[in-house]
User: Fold this.
Amino acid sequence: MGLKEILDDLKKDDFNEIWKAAKRLSELDRSDFEDFGFEAAIDKILEILEFYTEVDTKNPELWEAIISNNKEKKWEEIKETIREKLRELDVTPYNLNDKGIDAQDEDNDDLALKYYKQAVILDPNYRWSWYNLGNIYRIKDNNTKAVECYKKAVEIYPDYGDAWNNLGNAYYDLNEINKARESYEKAASIESYNSKHLPIYNIGLLYDKLGEKKKAIEYFKKAIELKNDYAKAQYNLGRVFYEIGDFLEAQKYFTLALINDFDNYYKEIEDYNLNVYDLVSKHLINSYMKFFKLDRNSIERNRAKYVKYVEKIIKNKFHFDKYIDSILDDEDYRKSWSKEYKKGNAESLDVFISSWIFEYTIEYVDTNTDNTTSEHISDTNRTKSKMKEYDFNLFKIKLLIKSINYFPGSEISESVKNKLIATIYETYDFLRKFKRDFIIEIDSNNYKNMKPKIKNVFAYLQEKDIKIVHKEDFFNLIKDLAEFLKNRIQEKYNKEIFKIFKYIITKFVKYLDDNDASLEVTFFLLDLIKFFFDKLEPDLSLECAHKAKHFFNLLNYEEDAKKVSNIIDKIKKSTIRVS
Assistant:
């Protein structure tokens, strides 16, 4: 008896005939299946197996006969015999699931649906195919069936984070908001789930849909904390900020979305009447400037030279222009530029630009370097040793800006370009001038207008939105002023100077945020705790202590944070005794 006859017998309504046919099926060779047509044979057997698993509804008379004759166990044996034969032929849930994935990769969702269904027919506990079935049904806009499949997946494996998250998505599309939120919260609560940013982001979308913008912002931010390159969350956070009228925050998060996924979001962001290239270029130049840690003493010594070079850069005059033009005309550079630009990564861009400078200036270096030593110096060091450090840095900035303006689609406006290049020098000059004037005023006993001037320094940094770029310079300024004022107070106590010192430190402690957490700043705060406690200023001492404790915790110095807690307790007890 051939395979065709066996398949026909497996479809009969007679239990005994089915039993015999299953036995004969198990005895066939692979060649019998290939003669019939292997794929067609497997499809028919799996159709029969699916029928058997639902026989109680699809053929009630046959099921009644099985029950009345106590054949339920034998019926399960028939199904297992068929499954065992399929396993022998290397037809497994794993392989069928893989075929479904391959079909999806080729955009053949109907074929993928068939394979995923066959996988769960063969093994009803194969959770991955239940999950993939749910995804296919969502693609086909059948969210009711998708819910059924995802629920089967999480029933089999309750810690299946992706299935819980997508179950939430299906409920969301069915407008069953409460069930969606419960599913997302379950996904986010699974300790072993490594993609918690997905359900947390989706909870943000839920709140956004309900009009609860503050909650939406909270959850979008949480998602970004878990995955800092999550462009979708960054875009939607920017959108919500734009909708509530916070345009600066909107630009910030739109910029991050562009950096992490330019091609998918630039059109949407342009709809908000924003120049996406200005946003990316502003970020790049600000980030790029951080690479140039200009030595403070060097700036003092070479101030005239720096001013001269900045003027040259802004006025488009530079003595390496011929090399820049050659690089810009290089076909390989043009091909690579767009890719590097859209990454929005200053470190990667620095490597990219530097490598091209080294390649094109090697001739300049070779012809201007002593041949007796040049062979012992790497290309990088030879280039940098011939060009002074500020030459090399400005060469890189110039190439960056000319590249932005050279290629269509990545232009940056002239006003943005000029403002950004000058920022680092302008701010340094501002802080330097303030320090000089401050010391002169104190030494002249001119205390009257000091508080407004101090207030202006903090306001300037906030207004210019350059706190992060220049926080090191600003911290050094505060540290220098603190040292200067402490020396004056210790030499001869002066009530007015002490008030000014208190005002500066009070403003400084309030100004500090989590981005400022460092050991250097924290130890500075510890010094201030002791100083103000000794001067009977427990309130300010406590403010410094609380901030120091918080920074130690952020930096994972738990023991030091505990020590500061003990200091806080001592200050509080001392305050009670004094009062």
